[in-house]
Specification:
This protein is 32% helix and 20% strand. The protein contains ten helices and 18 strands. The chain has a five-stranded antiparallel sheet with strand order 8-7-9-16-11.
Amino acid sequence: MLRYLTAGESHGKTLIALVDGFPAGVTVDVEAINVELRRRQGGYGRGGRQRIETDAVNILSGIWKGITLGGPIGLEVPNRDYKLERLDDLPRPRPGHADLTGAIKFLGSIRGVLERASARETAVRVAAGALAKQLLAQFDISVIGYVVELGGERIEPVDVPYDRLRSIRDQSELYGLNLARDEAIKQLIDAAGKDGDTLGGIVEVRVDGLPFGLGSHAQWDCKLDGKLAQAVMSVQAIKGVEIGLGFEAARRRGSQVHDPIQYDAAQRNGPGLGYVRPTNNAGGIEGGMTNGQTLVVRAAMKPISTLARPLESINLETKQKQEASYERSDVCAVPAASVIVENVVAFEIAAAFIDKFGGDNLSEMKARYELFLKMARER
């Protein structure tokens, strides 16, 4: 079973992820992980910390001569800006953060809660996902995340071949798929910043090349859509997750929702085994399992909770009304969220892939995968 745990605080010395269950025999490209970490730090609307930190991963264990060994892999992302012991506590909790609820839950300080609750923790989740993508690439599975809405404004993807989408996304300061929309939406972000406000948005992730049968219908906690929803919803500031049509499916009749099943013998040798659909409203999952179509996951990110013009709060000592405390923050982190969601989705897909095809070693996994495809085609 592929899984990971994270440790570290926003203003501590380092962040660590311990990845367990990763197969042996995968050559690791450290720079590819660092590219994802840099993308997470980018995007229009970010705050001051991104000019201080230059994230890069250190691999602490589980690799020899650049190849995974099958044991736990330790991933470290150091914090350049660490000063936790020198920081004072926040006297006034910020609406929308974990400040008040965490301080009461643990009967302690706000500072002790906010540093761990910070989205800074997602740096090592991105590193773990970037590692997982290197396993998926061995099976021609690709994952891409991008922004489809920001500040209430849609960013409709341009109609181009799939192999050009990544290039367009990487040229965009918003990590969208329509460069013509960038300037107008950057102006929205600038206006929100001048008002001391923040903006949220919606990100989308698509996964191509998936075979049938990742996940399971047999138990509620084995359903892949449930695991994806939990992983994505756990990202800080995410308030909603949907797959395929999502909430729109509730507004339509069944005949306008479910995807007809067709067969194309020319695609028989692909991971979809020749089964095709004229639509993909299910978003690539039926009954908790992948159905050979493109997986489509969307996540709604609320506006950042820390406002330069703070909302009303109270002083926890005096219980008197005051403005909420202010900590250095972003105006908009939706582009960064697209990177985080992309990588947590990739990790869950890799975990489901290992569950299905098992094996302690990459060669063993490839043999099992090919055997499954052969037997499924005969089916």
